[in-house]
Fold this protein.
Amino acid sequence: MQKNKLLFVTFYYPPAGGVALPGSQRAVKFVRYLEKQSVWVLTVETSCYPPFVSRDFDREVPVKGEKIAFARSYDLFQVLLALRRALRRALGRGRGKVEAQGMAAAGGSEALPRHPRSLAQKVKDFVYDLCHYPDGASGWILPALRAGRSIVRKEKIDLVLASGMPWSALVVAWLLHKVTGVSFAVDFRDPWIGNPFHESKGVLLDALGRYLERRIVHDAALVSANTEPLRDEFLARYPEQPRSKFVVLSNGYDPEDFRTLQPDAETAAESGPDRLVLAHAGFLYGRRDPSPLLEALERLIASDRCQPGEFLFLQIGTVQLDYDFHERYRSLMERGVMRDLGPFPFAECLRELQRSDVLVLIQPNTRTQVPSKLYDYLCLNRPILTITPHDGALGRMVTQHRFGDLFDQTDVAGIADRLLELLEQKKIAGTLRADYHERDFYNVQRIAAVLDDHLIEAARS
């Protein structure tokens, strides 16, 4: 059978790890198991990764013979600042106040005290946001468009598939459609419009975002969402589009990721049978706040229902909350109840999770998102404690498939009671294990097979 020729546009691909890991993983899992596609991957040069992207996703690529092309990314705002510096030097002037503020806004080391913004500062901020629109990967759009156009024409590509966020990848696919006529599909790993973690860039740019999403969705041959509530939002927002255009392709687990782990019988929590070790893997930021869990631990210890040494919470990943995490929970850290381990490479993170007793998911105040780490948790055979709204995508999924315990972020007392129950269970049994019978539904091999068929159909549209 002749295979479909697919160009997969993804900003994140191995070795992109850290906060980029969910995007890298989804791309790799699809590429590994697409049987009806001959795949070219277009991604960013590793030297152009943003500062928050680590290079520790230890996957050898190509994973299945895919051809990989790279395009550079440029920070247009920094280019403008460099031109300004050159102009000022040519005119014999030093660095001005506005430029120094611009460096601070761009992450430079010369941060200035915050004052009410002048008109000039507001203009500069708008220029900065415009240069990073629709996101921090915007400087990759034109180089990727140029590289992608060459691949489409040279290889006679049948279909372009782009995965976001960053949304710049979707813009690249849309522009390739405009300049070459090739059909394209878009994959939403998160909501673009209505994302609860989105920070407004002003009325004009927010309106531009809505316009871009509308044009991309209108012109795409296929739109995939990773949860049913997200698909439902698209159906409600674009009722004029055919319902068949919108499909659900959830994240999933890859059995290959777990073949190198030790059997469960050879693993144990580091602290023995009298301590409950809880672990959360992933980026803590914005609304993804572990406070309900940590407040539950504080309540238990203060009530004398347990001893500090009977609990240990491990945070694996970057922490960037709206408050000083370590200062607020200094007492827990000093008493050995909490440790911030920082980010780990993916394989090492799995081993650390396997040595823990309970795996924690934190997804408060969101209705359409499911953290990709859930699927890895399912394969580790540990109890899962999830903090999220009961009526959101994650809450409904946990309830439907009985994937562990579910608590609203306001139910600190309930979380505390359940932690005490789990501690007692471990003391009696010596270890905690779980068996999630319905996890096979989220085997990425099955999901990729569904995507395969959708892509063949989209290429013919």
